[in-house]
Amino acid sequence: MSSILTPPAPRRATVVTLSELAGVAPSTVTRALKGDTRISKKTRDLILGLAKEHGYMPNALARTLSSGKSGLYGLVLGSAENPFYMELLHEATRQAEKLGFRLLIIHAGGGPIEDITAQALIQYQVDGCIISSAILSSHAAEICARNHVPLVMVNRVALAHGCFVTCDNRAGGAEIARLMIARGRRRFGLVYTASSSSTSREREEGFVSELEQAGLKLTVRIDGHSNYDGGFAAGQEIAALLAQERPDAIFALSDIMAMGVLDGLRLASVNVPEDIAVAGFDGLASSARPIYDLTTIQQPLPLMIQRAFELLQARTLDPSLPDELIAMRGKLIIRGSTGQT
Fold this sequence. Notes:
- By secondary structure, this protein is α/β, with parallel strands linked by helices.
- It folds into 3 domains: 1-56, lambda repressor-like DNA-binding domains (434 Repressor (Amino-terminal Domain), Orthogonal Bundle); 69-167 and 301-330, Response regulator (Rossmann fold, 3-Layer(aba) Sandwich); 169-298 and 332-338, 3-Layer(aba) Sandwich (Rossmann fold), CATH 3.40.50.
- The chain contains 12 helices and 14 strands.
- α1 (15-22) packs across α2 and α5 (83-99) packs across α12 (301-317).
- The N and C termini lie far apart (89 Å).
């Protein structure tokens, strides 16, 4: 009875493999792959050619053991129901690739960062972590601080260990209020979120404070649950009010809720912006679609991510650096949902 023997799988190329093929020491291969000019150009070219031919890839684990740096950064994301976090993921991935880093998604959602999540940051030996949502417990912060894992909050204010890079949410909320007032609006509604995040709290504070300075106040305040469906339900609830009780201007604390509000109002035959002006916050790409044409505050997301990586890199090299707190102004984009001048 004959049997067919399966040929052994080809051995994965290593530094030792390349050194045997090139007839040089493994240390020479390592230096040549790093572009060390102490190795002759002829030898470097030979080794690089062999590496390409045999599909050699550096061992990331070995690099971590030798340098103490993994080139891996953790990323904590908010709920996928809000497209802002997907835009943040794409931007962070783009910039990380450009810098030669890799991202590891540690946590996704709006819940707290539990101790087990913080421990994962240590176990995977990440060089640092960007946190774009979720609540960081004091114990989780202590775990990261104790193990010299730098943290940068993006779109959030750090309440414990870590730096933060955020849009100036309070100023953005105030700017929306000034726009609405200048457009002649006098009855104001707010679609907020019950989240305890600094982001939503500061946007509301900026908006309400500006109204109060003008002798005005909110007449309607509805929880939009930080998602489209919540915004849609809020729009329907507002549309069901008697005409004289409805606000003539609505500020939703995020674009995704504002888009839900717009659809809820329009399906109830409420005209936007003639009857009610609507504005959001974030600057989502989808907010510019003609069906929404949403006035919004655009967060400077690429610059925020860039600064976050710079802060992490600096603290990877020097853990003793003090925390930095950076707030950037957003850009008011006026579109049809608040009417023309």
